Amino acid sequence: MFFLVVMSISGIYALANQSTNGALVTGIVDIEIQTFKLDNGQETKYNDTNKTVMPGETVSIRPKVCNLAENCYVRVKVDYIDQNTNFLDYVTGFSDELEKHGEYYYYNRVLNTGETLKIFDTIKIPNNITKTSNNKTLKLEIVAQAIQEKNFEPDYTAGDPWKNVAPIECINSSFIINENKSKISIRYEDNTNNDVTVNNNFFEKMATSMPGDSFKDSVEIKNNNKYNTRYYLSIDTNGKIPEEKNLLNNVDITITNKDGKVIYKGKLLDINKTLLGEYTPNEYDKLNFTVSIPDGLGNEFAKLNPDISFVFSSENDNKNNNETTPSNPQTGDKIEWAITIFLTSSIGLIVVMILGYREKQKKNIDSIN
Amino acid sequence: MSRKKTIIVAIVLALVLLIGGLIAYFTDTDTATNQFTLGDEVEISITETGWTKTTGTTNWTNSSALGVHPGVTVAKDPKISNDSETTPAYVFAEVIVPCYASTGTTADTPLYTLNDSSDPAVPLGTTVGSSGNTGWTLISVSSVNITDKTITYVYAWGTSSEMTSLAASTPTTTPVFSSVTVAPTLTAAQKATASATPNIVVNAYGIQTDGLSVTAPTAIYALAHPTN
User: What is the pLDDT of residues B198-228, one digit of tens each?
Assistant: First the structure.
C-alpha cells in the first residue's frame, strides 16, 4: 500500500511546467546593394570597383537592392561625378517603379523578403569628360535606405514621405532565421496548473514582432478549490544580454477579465506577483492579454529573442488559517523529494515487514507452548 | 525666468524629446561606391622623312621643294604616330592641297598630285574609296574651296568600312603618300591663279577606340574632327 501511495504522488509532479509554441522574437530590416553586369547576355557579379574607362564609353553596371529580412519600404539616391551631374542623363534601364520625391527615389511598393529591386542597367561616361575637368577618377555612389513595412505608411504628399525618419544601419548585418527560438514557458506554482489553463500556442504570433505591433491571447482560470482563492502572475526572464532585458522593460501588457475590467496595464517586466483576481469555488474567468511592442523602438531592439516565463501562483483562505498546502516539487528539478519519499516509504515498508515477522514468530511460539 | 515659464519650457522640452523618441523604426541603409578611372588621353604626332619643322611655326620645309617646276616630283611622306601611353587610337590624315584655275580665274584643279611612291611617281586615286599607301583609304574628297583655293582629301587608317586600331606607345603608320608632283602642264598664268603660298597642309586626327557609338570610318572621323 505504501508503494501505491508513493507512485501516485510521483505522477502529479509532471504538470508544474509547460512549454508553449509562443515566442517573442523581434524582426529586423536588412538590405544590401548587390552589383551585377551583363557579360555576353549573362548576368554576372560586377567586381571592378575601379574600372578604367574612356569618354563616351558605356559601362554595363546593374545595381540592385536586395531585401534580406522583413518586408520594407525602400528609397535610393544616386550620385554620379559631381552635384551638377544628373545621373539620369547617363543611365539606361532606370526602374520605372522608382518615383522621385525630394532628393530620393522611392520604390512605389513594398519590397518583400527575398525580393530585389533593380535600379538601372548601364551608365555612360560623358563624352566631354577630361582629366583636367575631373581629375582622373569619376565616382558613382548609390545609397539605399529601408524602413519596416509593418506599422508604417509613407506619406507621399509630404516633403519627406518617410516623416523625417533617418535610417541607420541595422545592428546585425547577417540575418539568419533562428529555428531554435527561446519559447515562452509557463510555470505553475501552488498547484495552479489545476486551475489555470494556457493554450500551447500562447502568443505564437509574437515570433515576428516589429515596433508598433500588438498581440492578443487569453488564459482561463477556474477555481477548483474548496476555498476562495487569489491568483497571481509574475514574469520571469533569463535575459542573456542586456538588450533583451531592456526590450522586456519596454514591452507593454494589458490584462482584462471577461467583463472587460482592466486588471493590469503597464510594462511586462513590472508584473511581479500581480493579483489577477480572487475567485470563489468553481468560479470561472477568461483573462485577455494584450502585449504591445512600442513604435518608438530603434534598431538596437532588432533581432532579439528573450526568454520569458509566465509564472502563475495562488493562495487561498486555507493558507490564511496557516494551514499551508504543500507545494508540489517541480518536474525534473526536485529529484531529492522523490528520493526522500521513496526512502521514507521504503523504511516504512521494512518496519511493517519486521513487525509482521515478529507477530508471526510470537504466534509460532505461542502455538508451541 | 519665472517658475511658471520654467515649467512651460520643461514641458515643451519633454514633449520634443518624447516626439523625437517616438519617431523610431527598424531601418537599414547600405552604400555602394564605384570608381571609374579615365584612361590616358590620345596623343598623336606627324613625322616626315626629309622634312623639318620650321622653328616657331607649324610649317615643315624641304629645301628640295623650293622653286620646283611643273612636273617635278618631290618626296613627301607624312606618317602618324600614336604617342599615348596606354590608349590605342584610330587616326586620320586630312590633306589640304592648293588649287589653280585651269581655265579662267576660278581655282578648280589641284596644284599637286599625291603619289604612292616617288620613283616612279604613281598618283593615288582621287575618288572616295581609293587606296592611299598601304593601310590608308581615301574616305572623303571635298569640292574645291574657291575662296581658299584648296581641295581637301581625308584618309583613314583602315578600309572604307572599318578602322584599324593604332596601338599605344608610339607605333607609326605607313606614309599617307610618298611624294607629290607639281601639275605638269601648269603655265605661269595658271600659277598666278593659285594661292601666293601654295603649301600642302597635312593635319592628323586621332580618337580613342573604346566607347565610340559609331563604327563607320566617316562617322568616327566626324567625332575625331567635329566641325562645330
Answer: 889 999 999 999 888 899 999 999 989 977 5
- For domain A31-148, the question of CATH label 3.30.350 is answered with no
The whole domain housing B128 covers 68-224
Contact, A191 vs A171, CB < 8 A? no
Kind and range of the H or E element at A92?
A: strand A91-92
Cα A138 to chain center, whole Å? 45
B213 to chain A: closest CA residue: A56
ipTM entry: 0.78
Q: Which residues of A touch B212 (CB under 8 A)?
A: 56
Cell of A219: 488564459
Q: How many domains does one find in chain B? A: 1
Amino acid at A177: I
CB contact under 8 A, A52 and B35: no
B28 to chain A: closest CA residue: A169
Instruction: Kindly determine whether residue B87 and residue A54, on different chains, have CB atoms separated by under 8 Å.
Output: yes
The model's pTM is 0.72
Does B8 reside within a domain? Answer: no
B33 in any annotated domain: no
* Chain B contact residues (CB < 8 Å to A): 21-39, 41, 87, 208, 210-213
Q: Where are the domains of chain A?
A: 1-14+333-369, 31-148, 180-320
Residue B110 in domain: yes
In contact, B152 and B141? CB cutoff 8 Å: yes
Instruction: Render the burial of A13-28: b for 16+ CB within 10 Å, e for the rest.
Output: beebbbebebbbbbbb
- Cβ-defined contact of B36 to A125 (cutoff 8 Å): yes
In this structure, chain A runs to a length of 369
Q: Judging by beta carbons within 10 Å of its beta carbon (0-12, 13-18, 19+), is residue A353 exposed, middle or buried?
A: exposed
Give the 3-state secondary structure percentages of chain B, helix then strand then coil, rounded to 5: 15, 35, 50
Task: Identify whether B103 is part of a domain.
Answer: yes
With a pLDDT cut of 70, the percent of chain A lying above it is 79
Residue B108 identity: D
Inter-chain CB pairs, A–B, below 8 Å = 160
Q: Which CATH class is domain A180-320?
A: mainly beta
Closest Cβ–Cβ partner in A167, A295, A301 for B29: A167
